[in-house]
Amino acid sequence: MKKQLTLKDAAIVVPHGFMGELKPFPKAPDLAQEVENAIKKTQGYFLSEQHEDGYWWYELESNVTITAEYLMLLHFLGLKDRNRDKKIASYLLEKQRADGTWPIYGGGPGDLNCTIEAYFALKLAGLSADAPPLRRAREFILSHGGVGAARVFTRIFLALFGQVDWLDLPSMPVEIMLVPPSFPFSIYSFSSWARSTFVPLSIMLEMKPVVEPPESARIDELFVKTRKRFNPVKDGILHPALKKFFRMIDRTMKGLERFPLRPLKARGLRAAEKWVLEHQEETGDWGGIQPAMVNSVFALSALGHGVESPPLRKGLEALGRFAIDQDGRLVLQSCISPVWDTALAAIALANSGIPREHPSLVKSCHWLGSKQIERKGDWSVKRPDLEPGGWAFEFENSWYPDVDDSAVVLMFLNNYADKEQAKKKIEKGINWVLGMQGSDGGWGAFDVDNNFEVLNQIPFGDLEAMTDPSTADVTGRVLEMLGIAGFGFSDPMVQRAIEFIRKTQEEDGSFWGRWGVNYIYGTWSVIMGLASIGEDLSKPYVRRAVRWLKNFQNLDGGWGECCESYCDCRLKGHGSSTPSQTAWAILALVAAGEAGSVEAERGVRYLLETQKADGTWDEEEFTGTGFPKYFMIRYHNYRNCFPLMALGRFFEAKKARAKKA
Predict the structure, then answer these.
(1) Are 374 and 429 in contact (CB under 8 A)?
(2) Considering the chain, what is the average pLDDT of its residues?
(3) CA gap 376, 390 in Å, rounded
(4) With bands split at pLDDT 50, 70 and 90, how would you rate the model's confidence at 17?
(5) What is the pTM of this model?
(6) Which of 285, 404, 447, 468 does the annotation list as catalytic?
(7) How far is Cα of residue 143 from the mean position of the Cα atoms in its chain?
(8) Residue 404 is among the residues annotated as catalytic for this protein
(9) pLDDT at 542 over 70
(10) Annotated domain spans of the chain
(11) Which of 391, 318, 378 is nearest to 191 (CA)?
């Protein structure tokens, strides 16, 4: 089992500044040939992996709560299946650590919420509280405060089964649905992922449905001392004044809930139900993410929709398509990423020398073009006059295209699509991305100016992910796309974006990464964007970013950064080397004109030495981010697509240097 990294362990990845310049690995005379051979092997892997329709699709791994909650949902609906329960239990037990806990990412510390949810799911699946895995888990849970110390969302799942009283949860009056979008605390003040989860949740909090589990599945043993009432406002997050304010608000709202005359309650429930039904895709999905899908099914069930009703039947079918059922285990993905995987794999192939007329690239162009979204989604509340044209992450998610996916798809289509056939799609896509620029000059992922930060302080904000503000990594990606599309450096929108980037730079030169781990990811994205758009790369702020990357190269030639860097910035840049993070650093160095540097060549050597015979790499680490600190992702495509991209660009840069010489 991988050991959790702490600051004390950072000596294994000491940056240059602490020990002087590292000497380069001995240069092999045939480095170019080795790189070319490695490229061909990985190209062969991707060409063999492409689906007939033209897309690539790989697992998106998160933590066990996603699958545990799926089992809870099915049991709540009365859809018990002993064989399926056994497969889910097998997966949960496989992921349990020796100390009895479950973490939120591989190698991370045991997490109380993951452990409680996995424990309850295993009891629903038939495990006895006396079983050794549950005894070990219970010791951890009780030593960390028991169920009373759990987050709000874990307690909601327990309330659905009568293990926690609904009145002990924070209130979210369904009347929030009637607040105009222009007002603070409307549903459109929340991030897209919070909104698509909170609307159905407001129904559940109002209806307070309960399905009592079998006596054998109860978890009374997980409460410390007594079932005392929960504090609806969690400690450790809020400013003292806000904590007091939210306690007062919660008491007021609970009083209103008990008041017999609530003239707007019925209207609010109807509005929430209508919103949930309207936001369901034809394929049954909601928001393309498990929390929105699971909560929507719970909410509609609470309103009387049966499991055979079209919305629930389609919703359950959609969840089933998120599941991976193989080798005697069943795991539910929190999301699926075919558009993201396809765009990245196609760019990697193209960057590594596959000709644009190759059938694989042609097919991926056609498939990606077909996934452009032609309808207005929630983003149009803030941008009513903007025409649609973005791309989403998943197969179907027409309400929530995102800027990041759209930018990467457009990078590929701009360079490799048939420009005449794809011209309108490219123009519409670029116009949509430009229209999503925030007033601060940057770009968020799904919304514009979604930065009402006080929402992260409300009782439901214990994941600190209630907003979707502009970030440096997404902004860097857009700049990279705009450079490929031919936009000039002096364009006013570009200048505003660069100003935003400069404001978000850390003192040491790095950039925080919102959607990948972490400062390596953010710094890579920004450097790529600045190089593409034509920024003078000799400017001091750019050189500081490049120098930061160089300083955190590991002794083995690779780069790595642990998920703990989100909690402790002293760990930024520290971690075991990984193929994906090493590739990001190499890509940034090549873009910054450093392909001939010692650091770039050592990074390439690391990739060559860790590549497997089939052209792939191993990577157990989680290098993707859902919610910083609280929800991490292991993209199974990252360990292969980014190294191929990096080797391809390094190879081309070295050839260009050789020609000049």
Answers:
(1) no
(2) 91
(3) 10
(4) very low
(5) 0.92
(6) 404
(7) 30
(8) yes
(9) yes
(10) 63-332
(11) 378
